[in-house]
Amino acid sequence: MTHATIVILGAGVSGLTTALLLSRNERYSITIVAKHMPGDYDIEYASPWAGANMLPVSKDGTPSNQYERDTWPEFAKLARDAPEAGIHFQNTVAYRRSKDTGTAVSDWMSELVRDDAWFRDLMPDFKAIPKSELLPGTDGGNSFTSVCINTALYLPWLVSQCLKNGVVVRRGIADHIADAASLHHSGKRADVVINCTGLSSLRLGGVEDRTMYPARGQIVVVRNDPKIMATISGTDDGPEEATYVMHRAAGGGCVLGGCLQKDSWESQPDPGLAIRIMKRCIELCPKLVPAGKGIEALSIIRHSVGLRPMRERGIRIETERIACPEGKQLTVIHDYGHGGYGYQTSYGCSMAVERLVQEAVGTQAKL
């Protein structure tokens, strides 16, 4: 059987999920090459820092919307049937404040808190929050069942599934996208390179996408468990600050956030922001701490900072033919620019990449 050789550049949730889907086709010989791997914690490597969860934020009819629709059934199946993946179901509430309209955080969350949210028929147990159950200062919102992901378990689980299917995983650095073609484990030149380098696509030679930018996020991970996932459309502490609470599966702790700071590369936690985050999260979810207690009752595991790989034009999934130094043409399929929704679009995006790989390999076979 003739195998198509594929190199996937990047081992975040996008690269690993793409490798997993492609590895189910025995016609593909796949190598994952990455500077950072699960178990690493580096500001360049976004996936370990994520919450991570499924809070639909795309607009109906957009490509991202389809990616979210395609991803939900896969996460629901894993939460139901594969506890070793580190995903569990969570009761979820999302509140809306009209005074937040026009801020970056509110715009990001606008679809999540709409009265006529498109995902009302996708996510289980969806209902508009009754007025009697709204928090003071809020004027709407939705509740539904979603999932929260323990990234410390899920990323290694993805690697293990890839290895089981014959994928070769290796560390490496490509300064130019064309360099990746020579990194397949067989020693052969790759037929297809899949670019899943996230924010590194800003500087990766041959890509250098100047529409990429970081959106800094800061969180506090605690041991307290409010037994709910919650968020709200804004804060009174500034337009770039956010409030969300999500309890990870299987001992992963509870994530308290956060912020959405455009173009900030700062890797160190801001102590003042950390205090504001903890206070806001207790206000949003009083059950985080015993009655009458404040942030002193939070059992802190760590403070963390991650950079969301944002892209002005949204997620980029497309095929490009790139000229290599030796004069040959290389087929590159891009999958990056996932912003703060890499997990909740991961399977949908990987399905789209899989279709492009099929087209590319089929075309090459005819040449």
From TrEMBL:
Keyword Cytoplasm applies: no
Key word Lipid metabolism present: no
SUPFAM superfamilies to which the protein is assigned, alphabetical: FAD-linked reductases, C-terminal domain, Nucleotide-binding domain
UniProt KW keywords: FAD, Flavoprotein, Oxidoreductase, Peroxisome
Principal location class: other
Source organism, top-level taxon: Eukaryota
Residue stretches making up the FAD dependent oxidoreductase domain: 6-353
Catalytic activity: a D-alpha-amino acid + O2 + H2O = a 2-oxocarboxylate + H2O2 + NH4(+)
Principal EC category: oxidoreductase
Chain sites annotated for binding D-dopa: 244, 308, 340
InterPro entries: DAO, FAD-dep_OxRdtase
Localisation: Peroxisome matrix
Any one GO BP annotation for this protein: D-amino acid catabolic process
Family, per entry: Belongs to the DAMOX/DASOX family.
Protein name per UniProt: D-amino-acid oxidase
Organism (species): Myriangium duriaei CBS 260.36
